[in-house]
Amino acid sequence: MGHDLNALPIAEADHAAIERSTREIGQYIFSHLADQHANIFERRWWDDRIMAWAMRDESVKVQMFRLLDVLPMLDTSESLTEHLHEYFHDVSKFLPTPARLALAVAQPGTLAGRAVAAAGRRNALAHARRFIAGTNTQEVLVAAMRERKLRRGFTLDILGEAVASEVEADHYLQAYLDLIAGIAPTVNSWSEVPEIDRAADEVLPRVNVSVKLSALDSQFDPIDPVGTTERVGRRLRDLLRAARAARSFVNIDMESYKIKDLTLAIFRQIMAEDEFREWREVGIVIQAYLKDSEADLCALADWARERGTPVWVRLVKGAYWDYETVLANSQGWPVPVFEQKWETDANYERLTRLLIAAYPHLRPALGSHNIRSIAHGLAVAKHVGLPNSQIELQMLYGMADHLKQALVNMGYRMRIYMPYGELIPGMAYLVRRLLENTSNDSFLRASFTENVSPEIMLMSPWETGMRATASNHQAPSENSSPAVIAAAVSQADDFRNEPLQDFSKAEHRQEMTDALATVRSEFGRTYPLVIDGQAVGTDHAIESIDPSQKDRVVGVVASASVDEALSAVAAAEGALGQWSKRPVEERAEFLRRAAALMRERRYELAAWEVYECGKAWREADGDICEAIDFCEFYARLAIDMQSERTGRGERGVDVPGEENRFYYLPRGVTAVIAPWNFPLAILTGMTTAALVTGNTVVMKPAEQSSVIAAKLMEIFQELGLPPGVLNYLPGPGETVGAALVEHPNVAVIAFTGSRAVGMHIYRRAAETSGQGAAPLVKRVIAEMGGKNAIIIDADADLDEAVLGVVRSAFGYQGQKCSACSRAIVLDKVYDQFLSRLVEATRSLKVGPADEPGTSVGPLIDAESQARVLDYVRIGGEEGRAALAVDAGPLAQQGYFVGPHIFADINSGARLAQEEIFGPVLAVIRARDLDQAIEMANSVEYALTGGIFSRSPANLDRARREMQVGNLYLNRPITGALVNRQPFGGFKMSGIGSQAGGADYLLQFVIPRTVTENTMRRGFAPS
Ligand SMILES: Cc1cc2nc3c(=O)[nH]c(=O)nc-3n(C[C@H](O)[C@H](O)[C@H](O)COP(=O)(O)OP(=O)(O)OC[C@H]3O[C@@H](n4cnc5c(N)ncnc54)[C@H](O)[C@@H]3O)c2cc1C
């Protein structure tokens, strides 16, 4: 059925009546609010002072929230005072005088320091207690009883750390089971409070819990709906059974957008099972800030009708607005939330009407503290004759108490959302609440802190929107003037990274599944060499196989010999003259068109990577995006570089009588020798950098990824690249690679791969330079290995650190040059970190790369498998195997090695020094940060590195002292993006400018200056 306003029992003419009634109800509520002014003797007065003071300056607010966030990890007064100084030093001029003075005297280790630390901690805890109902069942029962005395019901939410492992998911479930078992007998024996325990004749459950589905599965991931549903379902059914037996209501909370569809789907699936189909005491949340929410609510209504038993819907606006906005912008995805506050409010009202119209299949619970939103809901209910008892109002613990009481007094059922639990997860919740309450758009802030009049607060959202739009038009922003927009300086400035695929969308998963099937149907095809535009067959062939299933041949690729290498170089030399003379814009256009073709074929190309290189879906997709980025970025960069305005091209410093011109010339024939681990991206990056700067290329891919390289060749052939400009020459490195490196006419060798091969190439290139008819010094660009470390500081956010290390160490089975292979952990958090890390890693799914739920796929080949297993043996000798996942039968089916973690490794041990290129992580204990940094730097490589810390001073030290090309603070150390994180290291990690960065192309050109004396007998042009 259709779900528009016309389908409601509200005629258009009635909207005016509802609007009138909304304002009347709103005015009534405002005038009946309990005394809202706290007095100086109350805790709330102090809290309000602190908030008002923090809100005055954005930088103070940010620092205060950051301090609250790290506070649970600061268990000594020294660490707390140190952080106080680090956080507030730069913003101290904005602090009120008493706070500034206190900070000045509070030095770590002094009496004053201890006193200030103690006061700070007390204050923060008190603040947390305002929003968190208790730390254990007893305290929560007391809080619940207090609410009942005020005729308010409750729903309990257990605050949890991010669930990183299956053990933690089990704990979370158990905590709910214990909670229900612990309180139900007591609560059910309390005497009845009809206002909250009944809805007309219906007896409502008194125990009511709110649950987050993501906490019921450590691998909750919409890319794998089937696996996730299966795992969540197992735990959720246990919870539902226990709840039903204890007469408890269960509400499913809603979290971030990326898991919204799957959360709704799981709810619908389980609640439609025979066992639960007739159970009424369940509910779910709809977030009105989401643009999808109307469609979701309508689908839910249809489903409930079909189910035949109603469910409750808690309608909220949504708690993750900032997160969703930042995430979507940084990923280049459409923003899923409304971007104007009034739009969210308007949608909330639209959904309220839909929800009430869907009664009795859906039962409305309005979760809001906004008097306008609530009044509108009550007005609609009244208008359609829905009795008060059939609607529920819900608010958060510790917020808007005077409002709650006014509504209770008006005869509405009020339920309080009461989070409870330990302080560490509690702080994250506290910060969310404070962020919301201090936001410029918050209803509570505007009406109660800034005393905006009720008339304005009660305006309809549309009216508010119109006023906002009108005032925006009166004062156009200076920044948006056309002159400013036109002044964009360079092509590269408008480069945007290709957005990764959002696999939470069913249509994208379907396209990937289809592409995998198509690619499977093309297995076993043959691919010839391409030299001078001609397909060339060979006597020998490379069988490229699927590392997930080694009896499966992905493709049969011609394997070049030295003779063919010589012809390929000759072809490239032949094409050089014409190609290098083409205007840079034309060469760049080939790259742009290649990017467009890759975009069209992105699923198919990704599918080839899944099968040929054992990349999981997201990893494969990321590689295609990076290849597209290289094309788009280098195309722009090359044009900029040649342009007088943005680069050095043709520009010269002229003085009277002398004209100087500066040019870039291509270097000549370039041998591109690429690895298999980023099979399209790295190959495309090196190749296009050479091509766009006017060089011609012989492309020698790794044998293990020759089919994907053939696809790149196909793309350039389809674009009509002239013959010889790009040649495709798969073959063994020892013969074909060596022939290219040593060829006297090869001017540039762009290599990415192992240190041993890189150094060999460097040496041979030097030895064979200067031997051709036109002698030249070969230019070598070599990106080599890494032995990358992440430091875990004593104050790190362990939720983030555990997940960051897991992703960096085991993503693509540790086969990225950027992968983390050492975790250097400060003594204080070592044990805690290690045990969470081990469990989180144990929970990863090892499996074939084409299964969407796979986190750890196969290694690339038998040689890798044997080498990594050898390191596993060495790890056992050098340390303690904290985790050794056996890949089981998969190790025979494909080249699988399960993830391994070795603890207590000495920083000088082989496991901590040698590049392994597999899922093996060494965990090293450090006394303090000095030692941790020293250990991190004590390897021969300097590629990537990272630190998880919440101390600004320590982050600064890492910035200065950690010797790596790419340093990451408080995030995983893999996944560099073109332009945003140009990539490459130094020491034994390589020579050359960072790939995907502004200087990269300079390595492929020769700078040349022409100076002319323009003076003729004392006359010079001006
Ligand atoms: C009982 C209860 C349970 C809840 N459960 C959940 C839950 O499961 N999941 C969840 O996500 N939230 C939940 N919330 C939180 C809720 O989503 C809101 O964050 C909170 O209630 C504030 O909304 P408001 O209507 O009270 O205040 P208002 O001040 O009217 O609205 C604030 C809200 O407007 C939105 N907003 C702010 N700025 C903008 C902008 N520039 N453009 C567009 N929109 C903007 C945001 O969603 C923000 O939270 C719950 C709230 C309650 C009361």
Strand order of the largest sheet: 1-4-5-6-7-8-9-10
Small molecules in complex? flavin-adenine dinucleotide
Question: How big is the Rg?
Answer: 32 Å
Low-confidence stretches: 1-7, 475-488
Strand content: 15-25%
Secondary structure tally: strands: 32
Distance from first to last alpha carbon: 80 Å
Q: How much helix is in the residues?
A: 40-55%
Count, helices? 37
Model description:
By secondary structure, this protein is α/β, with parallel strands linked by helices. The protein is built from 37 helices and 32 strands. Strands 1-4-5-6-7-8-9-10 form an 8-stranded parallel beta barrel, surrounded by 7 helices. It is globular, with a radius of gyration of 32 Å. Mean pLDDT is 93; it is low at 1-7 and 475-488. Flavin-adenine dinucleotide binds next to strand 6, strand 7, helix 14 and strand 9.
